[in-house]
Design brief:
Number of strands of chain A: 13
Largest sheet of chain A: 5 strands, parallel
Distance between the termini of chain A: 63 Å
Oligomer: homodimer
Strand content of chain A: 15-25%
Shape of chain A: elongated
Structural class of chain A: alpha/beta
Largest interface: A-B, 74 and 75 residues
Strand order of the largest sheet of chain A: 3-2-4-1-5
Low-confidence stretches of chain A: none
């Protein structure tokens, strides 16, 4: 029997346009396409003839285990998720589980465009300089560590990109992060919010750290806070490539 | 006359496979494809019939100005670069210059996969948790600020991804960054080096913070330093999705 293969595929924001050729080919060639229901539903119109296995949220470990088991039967399996499978994605847990299970399969990661890239392109050019990406989800990370990271990002004047800024149960963390950032940055610091980045119902808003209203943000948003140099021009959020240095142009 | 258009296109690591469909279409549809010679040379074999305008390094501002001027004549211009045009890319300066020049053109950013994503997929799954991206280039950023950011990334236990880790004139910064990180992380912390990520002559190595040899690193490398949880298994660098929290699975 040929060795089974498991591709951990990030397909970007959702449409075919922002997918890589490699991701599309791997999905087209797979025997089974597996993933969280929302992701599978994004792919069905693009690849209507595939065999899909969709499972609900919060069953991630079982979904991964099942994908590995399918690959162990010699099948070619594409495990799909939006964004980049390598950034807050499934790649890590797949490697971990495959080892635990002693699975003799080939695993590869097919990276995609992460949400920070998509959201930035909607807002203008906010990520032109050093960047911190922080998830506000405390499901697997102590909230104190998350807020310490926000503090370090503020202290280091990083452009700061927040993933999972809110959920039904975590509504106050975004404001907590805002308060921490306000200790180091002015209330005029530009902030961009993008909901459903790169999807049909995309929505965005450019505001400031002082005016950022958590009511504008939900779990489908990415929030990007500028560094001390970021400005807004013609509605676009722009971070210069550098700081003025004596003797430079 | 129709309004000219300028697309600031990131085409990912270099080959067509890791480009998005949108990037390929925008390049195919453009009247002129313009960029740094190295990037243009990567695209010529993929899109042999295009009109290219290639210029050397260190002429970035002139290149951008010329692209804007071409668009101002009503042409459709694709300004190309590798990785994501929105992360340390040309998007920001294009918006800035177009405003200065009072250019009445349409500008849009077509994001691509950034080098961190490509390098991570080569190494395994190092970017599964909060991430700091820092460029060690001091061309436009004071070195003290760069090193402060490294310190903050160390203090916040961020997975840390170094762009431009070395150049002909900056050979000591990587070791300086390593020393700063060693104050907060053990010498056993995994470090991945990827040269020419996603290109034909790709090379990679997994080592540790204690053993990291700057001689292995040049200007074509990305260096990824794990957080306190990152480990190596079967040659792959893996960062778990979270920290063990009491009461979690």
């Amino acid at each position: 029997m040929a060795k089974g293969r498991l591709h951990v595929v990030g397909f970007g924001p959702g449409g075919k346009d922002d997918m890589t050729f490699r991701a599309a080919r791997v999905i087209e060639d797979a025997d089974i396409v597996t993933g969280y229901t929302t992701y599978v539903n994004l792919l069905k119109p693009i690849f209507p003839d595939k065999v899909y296995k969709a499972t609900g949220m919060m069953k991630e470990v079982e979904r991964c285990r099942s994908a590995i088991e399918d690959a162990m039967t010699g099948k070619d399996v594409a495990m799909v998720s939006s964004g980049d499978s390598g950034i807050y994605g499934m790649a890590g847990i797949i490697y971990q589980l495959a080892e635990e299970m002693g699975a003799d399969i080939e695993i590869d990661t097919v990276p995609g465009m992460t949400a920070a890239s998509t959201a930035a392109s909607v807002l203008g050019a906010p990520l032109m300089h050093d960047l911190a990406i922080i998830s506000l989800s405390d499901l697997m990370t102590p909230i104190d560590l998350i807020m310490k990271r926000v503090e370090m990002a503020a202290e280091g004047d990083f452009v700061t990109c927040l993933y999972n800024p809110k959920s039904k149960t975590r509504t106050e963390y975004l404001d907590q992060a805002r308060q921490i950032l306000l200790k180091k940055r002015t209330p005029e610091t530009p902030v961009g919010i993008v909901r459903n980045a790169g999807r049909e119902d995309q929505w965005s808003k450019v505001t400031t750290l002082g005016d950022l209203d958590p009511a504008d943000v939900d779990m489908f948003c990415i929030v990007i806070i500028g560094n001390s140099q970021t400005y807004v021009s013609d509605g676009r959020m722009i971070t210069p490539r550098g700081y003025r240095i004596e003797g430079s142009e």
